[in-house]
Amino acid sequence: MIGGRRCSEAARRLKRRPDTLELSVLDGQPMETELQLQEDNEGTPSKGAGNVNESGLGATEVSRSAPSKRTRWFQFARSSKNRRKRLHCDEDEEVVQQDRRNSDLEGSRRACLAQPEGMNIGSSTQTIATPLMMGDSFYSLAPGGGNPSANKSDDLELYKQRDPSVTSESKSAPSMRRLSQIRRRRSSYYFSENERRIRANDKEFNAQFKYHNNYIKTSKYSLFTFLPFNLLEQFQRLANFYFLCLLVLQLIPAISSLTPVTTAIPLIGVLTLTAVKDAYDDIQRHISDSQVNNRKSKTLRNGKLVEAKWSEVQVGDVIRLDNNQFVAADTLLLSTSEPNGLCFIETAELDGETNLKAKQCLTETIELGDRHDLLWNFNGEIICERPNNLLNKFDGTLIWRGQRFALDNEKILLRGCVLRNTQWCYGVVVFAGVDTKLMQNSGKTQFKSTGVDRLLNFIIIGIVLFLVSICALFAIGCAIWEGLIGQHFQLYLPWEHIIPKDYIPTGATVIGLLVFFSYAIVLNTVVPISLYVSVEVIRFVQSFLINWDEEMYYPTTNTYAKARTTTLNEELGQIQYIFSDKTGTLTQNIMTFNKCSINGRSYGDVIDLRTGELVEITEALQSVDFSANPHHETDFRWYDRTLLDAVRSDEEHSHVFFRLLALCHTVMAETVDGKLEYQAQSPDEAALVSAARNFGFVFRTRTPNSITIEVMGQTEEYELLNILDFNNVRKRMSVILRRGDSMVLYCKGADNVIYDRLHGGQEDLKARTQDHLNKFAGEGLRTLALAERRLTEQYYNDWRSRQQEAALSMDSREQKLNAIYEEIESEMQLVGVTAIEDKLQDGVPKSIANLQNAGIKIWVLTGDKQETAINIGYSCQLLTDELADVFIVDGNSVEEVEKQLRQFKESIKIYNRFRPGGFEALDRLNSDSNMDPLSVTMTQTSAFMQETNLPPTPPPPPAISVVTFRWDEKNKDNKGGPDSAECNDLFGDDKRSEDGGTASIVVDESTGFALVVNGHSLVHCLSPELENKFLDIASQCKAVICCRVTPLQKALVVELIKRAKNAVTLAIGDGANDVSMIKAAHIGVGISGQEGLQAVLSSDYSIAQFRYLERLLLVHGRWSYYRMCKFLRYFFYKNFAFTLCHCWYSLFCGFSAQTVFDPMFISVYNLFYTSLPVLALGVFEQDVSDKNSLEFPRLYTPGLKSELFNIREFIYSVLHGAFTSLVLFLIPYGVYKDGVSANGFIVSDHMTLGAVVATILIVDNTAQISLYTSYWTVVNHVTIWGSLVWYFVLDYFYNYVIGGPYVGSLSQAMKDLTFWVTMLITVMALVAPVLAYKFYLLDVHPSLSDKIRQKSLKKIHSRTSSVVRRTASSRRGRRSVRSGYAFAHQEGFGRLITSGKIMHKLPQDFAFPLGLGTKKTQVLHNNLNSADGPNSKTNNVTGHHMVNNNTNMRQNQNQHHSSMADITADGRGNGGDDGRGSGGSDDMSPRAPCQDLDTINL
């Protein structure tokens, strides 16, 4: 800086390598003393190299005379601050150094362009190999890594130069040990908490950091910790702790009127049942852990390859992986069996994708091969990031042989991946066990509880407060009674000895205090512990009903649905948001060639020749026979024979079409067991090349500069001149080919991109093709447009020279290359379009439609790019063309995202202002006196406004909407009763007309908005300043799709909805990237049956297909919620009816806590007399059948609003129970008070009253639960009527066999007619109001389930919801104005092909530079460089054969056909100087008449 002193040469070296400052302290390097000498001469500037040498000599002397390293360390600590302040150079030196670095960088880039083989796969940066400063850092490694003895001797020489004191010990073993210790100590001193250091094959070095081993533990308990930990967890539940306190109170004789057994036995039962269930779950986790930990892995130990368990693998070990073997830990790839260090992996366990992905090791480590001696001597040190859950990111550095090499994610194999199509590979373990990214994504298992559980906890607190209030009231009443009346009856009712008798008020107060606790014990049955036992049993049985459901069995993989938890069943009936992954969850990740359009003629539909109608394509329909083609694929399906006939008749345009598909791609071909197989970077390309293969255009092989195909049995070889690679900006890829004297450019890409680059004169062809594109897009197919351009040699050579100049440019290289590409990818001739179906899982559109009709909002969270995500949204009918608008949030900054959200909010406001069924429409309805009372249709049409600055006048209504008003006497305001199907507000708040009818508004539910958010924009949407705006818009959208999101973002979105909306969420996925989302949601569902089971292991429920989610929620979820709520309502009713009898009786017993019932009856009331009927109700009850539950999704609505059990329903049950207890006690009390039997016996004793009330209570419970039960089974009959009989049997056994205190009371009462009349009157008084209320609801306010049951009784099956025909086999023929473009291909594969790095072996005649043509034309292009584009990143390589299943049905418009230019079989063509293709649109296809069956307007 200006005015500052110049740094010495040593200081500048120190500035470049800051770690040497600390090293000099530990190692006595000359650097330290040099700085010390400078410190002594602060005013003297540096004097050049001579001073540095002198300082170096002085440093040696000081180093020898230094007392100890400890002293040097403290000296360093004291002066380090001053030293660092002086380590600055002035601005001139900084400018010089920056210029030097720029020149070095330019040189390296030129070297990079000159040697494209130095590029890494999947990375846009070249391999960094920076030499380290020997002697200045502990990073320095001795050369000759393959010779251990040489390494040791060189290290020793270096050590002797640094510390001459050990010269005399140079040949001794202790000196070598000291050297090793110092080197290890140095690395440990400079370990940062933000980085991780690993040294290959050095356990001692790695052990000092205490890295986790590869042992996996997901279990919670061990044999010794199970009992204490499990009891601790159980007593954290409020109910268990409450009953434990009651048990302690019952152990005190002075306050307990009940034996402790009444609480101890149920409490022990609950604890035991829960402990057994927890133990079983943990045993399953132990078994799963053992299976994983005992897997075998080949590990290098002492230079030999040995088999070791996965749990024994350590960080730093070199392991070997064989083909089709799981990766044991996160590993840095060292060498592979494939050329150029490539290997292929399948990541189904991580992300559910089955397409292969390519990984490539460093070129410097390829030489290690499979030689165990070289691998064992590999001593590279890896410095990398800390363990994290980012599956697609890895940053690190490899230090080896004195050089640094950059490491990224493309060189890392993650645990859970499977090695495919690679014979073997070796790697160094970087992360092991819980540090692996797979386990980091698993996260901690969160305790999940249902909304019913949380409500129960709240209710229990309220009941306890109510109980305390009642007890306090009765305690006060007891104290007053004892003080006024009881004191005079001590002869008959003596006070306890602990109560003071000297002063009456004090004694009465003490008695009242004791009675408080006595009543707390007597009234504890309001919340009996049997409630929790019953809840656990019901959930347990419901889980088995889910497991045994044959309708959710998937025979292909022999997989049943499985409830992996037994505590969340009723939560399935309250789901408000579903968060779904795409790949592997909604789709099969299989692409099929479905339809196409060639020269304006559409192919793919099957038409009945007799009727001219479209034939629906099913499995029963016979497909076209391709057996004449020796290379055909047996699983390829195509049903339109006209296309095959056109190809076989040498129709020109069809040949151009399939020749383009066979040549314009980056697929690799190989022969395995005599069979041709393809490895594609994306399933889209695999489907297209596979289609061309089956139609006779077989892609055979490729080299870096040629492509060989076989056309109808004839081999054609093309010279590959250039590949203009695909990227997300260009949205297209092109190849430039030469065959013979003709040269052509083939291009495929998005239809809008291709259309903008076509030459004029193709309006008719473009219009007809656009019509086909609209139909394909409307059917949810992924479309690509194909085009060609004929080139001349002169034009291409001129373009090539300018392209090379742009590729070597250091300024704006990307922009210049794009401009060059734009130049040649213009004036093209349209060839046709392809329509690929990204095969959805069976039944996905129908399931999504039904779930949406049920009121559930569905969000798709995927890592795919925007176009693919939107296309799948349309395919599965999550998005429809009827939507008013689809909002896309793709801003890169907070300001851009906020602006977009603001615009979208304004658009929604405009739409809602004119929304069908809004207040304005109702006003018009009321004001229009001439309106037709049967039906009135109002249509509103206008252009949708996108401008943010709205005019002051009211804007026109958006889109097109239809509102239909009709009067219907049958439509009424439905309100569900507390014991009906509880479908409140299903029919809206309709305004009634003057004549009493209802004006119902029918609104198309498909209208509305959808929101698409990109991952980089989602970061800003989740920020505190924008999350409320984001939620406001998202909550008003019918569907939300988040694309390019990370696993962490998926979890954050779920957490946001849970927190802000307080909504019940469900997450469904099939890969490790979905685990965070699954664990964050209230309910996690994993897709099983695939190879990736990581999501299943972390889920609460597992199903084999997405379509089973519909049944899981709408049937089992709704039933579970309905049953649980009904069970709870009845349970609270019967217990309040039972317990509050004591409250009424206390008014007549001086508040003495005397029980009206026999203590044994109190103990077994909930256990033996009323438990089985209510359990049967909770397990088997259903209001409608499973078929009706699926047919009428709106039956699910009450669960969304928690209408079946809430505070209101609980209070209703309490009041009903209080009324029952009052009637139940007062009528028998009035009858038996001062009562005398016919024989003259007095029947007004306490025991007779208690027996009569208890018997009537049991009979009333039986009658009430009979009215509660809607679905009768054999189990219901046995439990309900059996419990009634069981009461009399058990009462007789207890009183007469065991000798209970109430012996003879009931039998004597039953002999008198008074008992039977009293019971009849009491039961009728209790049942009549309930029956009246039920009939009132059924007749006046019937719910949806009531109507369904009535129709079922009349055998009338009618569906009120719209019929959804959205499966892949029955798509409706509709047109869409949107683009159907979606292409999963990614940038970077073209460079791999042209550089030859992906080739297994190069051809023998491959002797010319890449992309320069044949040997004959090599001289012409010697002055051209081989690089044809910027560095690019390569992602996944897939190797799947895609099957085709044409399952679409649509209708076609009238079409006219024209032809286009083509390269003939001999490679000739007419090209103009401008490179424009010849050929027009006037020549007609020989198989395309003006109008045929394909073009009939149906």
Kindly state the mean pLDDT as a whole number?
74
How many helices in DSSP terms?
46
Helix content: 40-55%
How many strands? 38
**Given the helix and strand composition, which structural class is it?**
alpha+beta
Low-confidence stretches: 1-74, 80-96, 105-172, 183-191, 917-1006, 1356-1374, 1401-1498
Provide the gyration radius in Å.
41 Å
Our estimate of the beta-strand percent is: 5-15%
Topology, element by element:
Elements (H helix, E strand, L loop, with lengths): L8 H8 L2 H9 L2 H11 L8 H17 L3 H17 L5 H24 L15 E2 L16 H15 L10 H17 L5 E5 L3 H5 L18 H10 L2 H13 L10 H33 L2 E6 L2 E6 L8 E5 L7 E7 L5 E6 H4 L1 E8 L11 H5 L4 E5 L10 E5 L2 E5 L4 E2 L4 E3 L3 E8 L5 H6 L8 H34 L19 H19 L7 H18 L14 E2 L13 E4 L6 E12 L2 E3 L37 H8 L3 H12 L4 E5 L2 E5 L3 H12 L2 E7 L2 E6 L2 E11 L7 E8 L2 E8 L1 H5 L7 H16 L3 E10 L1 H15 L5 H12 L4 E12 L3 H10 L3 E5 L4 H10 L9 E5 L4 H20 L5 H9 L8 E6 L18 E8 L23 E2 L5 E5 L6 E6 H7 L5 H8 L4 E5 L3 H15 L3 E5 L5 H6 L2 E5 L6 H4 L3 E3 L4 H39 L12 H11 L1 H10 L5 H6 L5 H4 L6 H26 L13 H23 L5 H25 ...
Parallel strand pairs: 16-28, 16-36, 28-35, 29-34, 34-35, 36-37, 37-38
Antiparallel strand pairs: 1-11, 2-9, 3-4, 3-5, 5-14, 6-12, 6-14, 7-8, 7-13, 9-10, 10-11, 15-38, 17-18, 17-27, 19-20, 21-22, 22-23, 23-24, 24-25, 25-26, 26-27, 30-31, 31-33, 32-33
Helix pairs in contact: 2-5, 3-4, 10-12, 11-12, 12-18, 12-36, 16-17, 18-35, 18-37, 20-21, 24-25, 26-35, 28-31, 35-37, 35-40, 35-41, 37-42, 40-41, 40-44, 41-42, 41-44
